[in-house]
């Protein structure tokens, strides 16, 4: 089965990192399905059954998004609330559609990696900030994997950094 990459970026055309990651992933359509939530749901009305069927067709799920105010873009929270429903994702004998599926995050962070540390500017690691996603995965019995991150997206990103990040993303996806 292929890996489903759910892209949640409200302004993908202006993105450097996420847009480049997508273009690299799209070179491998036999391995990855790219699903852009903001393009699919411009009106904010999510087709829950369609989303659930899409997930069921994949054994690995990546949520790819830029960090927004130390969280995700709002459509991701809405998507999780509406798609990961009782009786499908958890809570009943048939509610385990995510059980055992590999689940991970690919995150672009505007600030530098050293700022995400006990001694850094924000006194918390990115792993700590992303803990609610890990807990969500554990709650639905998915197999949560370490995240992939790009730090410093707010700063000048060189073409070489961008390329290294895109190639690193593919290596990360292949390692799952």
UniProtKB/TrEMBL annotation:
What sequence ranges are listed for the domain Flavodoxin-like fold? 1-171
Gene3D superfamilies, per database record: 3.40.50.360
Asked if the keyword Kinase belongs to this entry, the reply reads: no
A Pfam match is Flavodoxin_2
**Origin: domain of life:** Bacteria
| Broad EC category | oxidoreductase
Record key words, sorted: Oxidoreductase
Enzyme Commission code(s) on record = 1.6.99.-
GO MF term (any one): NAD(P)H dehydrogenase (quinone) activity
- The UniProt entry's coiled-coil ranges are none
Protein name per UniProt: General stress protein 14
Source organism per entry reads Cedecea lapagei
């Amino acid at each position: 089965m292929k890996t489903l990459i759910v892209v949640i970026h409200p302004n993908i055309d202006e993105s450097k990192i996420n847009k480049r990651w997508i273009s690299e992933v799209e070179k491998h359509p036999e391995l990855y399905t790219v699903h852009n939530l903001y393009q699919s749901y411009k009106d904010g009305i999510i087709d829950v059954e369609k989303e659930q069927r899409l997930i069921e067709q994949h054994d690995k799920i990546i949520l790819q998004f830029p960090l927004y105010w130390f969280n995700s873009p709002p459509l991701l929270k809405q998507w999780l609330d509406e798609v990961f429903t009782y009786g499908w994702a958890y809570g009943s004998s048939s509610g385990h559609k995510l059980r055992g599926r590999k689940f991970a995050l690919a995150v672009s962070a505007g600030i530098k990696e050293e700022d995400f540390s006990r001694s850094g500017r924000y006194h918390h690691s990115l792993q700590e900030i992303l803990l609610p996603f890990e807990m969500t995965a554990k709650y639905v019995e998915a197999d949560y994997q370490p995240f992939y991150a790009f730090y410093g997206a707010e700063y000048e990103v060189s073409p070489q950094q961008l390329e290294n990040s895109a190639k690193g993303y593919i290596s990360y996806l292949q390692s799952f």
